[in-house]
Amino acid sequence: MAKVIDGKGFADRLCEQLRDEVSSLKQAHDLTPCIAVVLVGDDPASHVYVSNKVKRCEQLGIESREHRLPATCSADELIGLVAQLNSDPGVHGILVQLPLPEHLDENAVINGISPEKDVDGFTLLNTGALAVGQRGLVPCTPLGSLMLLKDQLGDLSGLNAVVVGRSNIVGKPMASLLLQENCTVTIAHSRTRDLPGVCRQADILVAAVGRPRFIKGDWIKPGATVIDVGINRIEEDGRKRLVGDVDFDAAQPVAGAITPVPGGVGPMTIACLMYNTVTAAKASRGLDH
Ligand code: GUN
Does the predicted model carry a pTM greater than 0.90? Predict the structure, then answer.
């Protein structure tokens, strides 16, 4: 049976280290890391994510400022708010919760964020820096997934990694990070031929497709390390539950190690957002992370 990777425990330990670091930044440099979180509209899942982020900030001594705008707000209002946060020296990180209402252009809003405050790592500059192996802020979910993989496997050099899903938020940056670790990387997607056969080649399988239990047990190479990025809300036997993109019960007897949902990658995403916020705050004073 696969080892179940304790993402929650890893995230808690990372956050404890960050809490100590935040406390010494306050004492030694009179610096309190601060993140501005912008939430547009009333998507219920987004509200839950934002409140989890704000709670983590409180635990760590990071200041969080929440800005809520109505779903009907204009592009000018939202981009104006981002510009104001860019020029506020007390704000080190800016996160605009996605998805945005349809009338707003996500790319225009994201690229309005100053790259040095882009704690999601979604701006063109940070995306490009990651693609060419330069320093920058790295998207939180791929960064957290990589931390779990390195903790589990140590050196990843030469391993076959298959990333299922090609989103800008997870799939593509995950592939860049794995390539930097000298993996042989395949990005698979909805048009991939023989997806089960491609997945079966993977020593590292990252599932980021957004479909409940899409990856079956017999798609997994025996002993593989499986990172399940999916957070799918389903109703089963009259009960609401969260499930991943991997059929966990079928995968567990085959895989070497697997992240659960919940309690795997999810907590790591928030912990890495805290990490990026501390990194951005330190960089604003020329302090190395
Ligand atoms: N919506 C779902 N995931 C994310 C994320 O990582 N960052 C932002 N800003 N919005 C999201």
Answer: yes
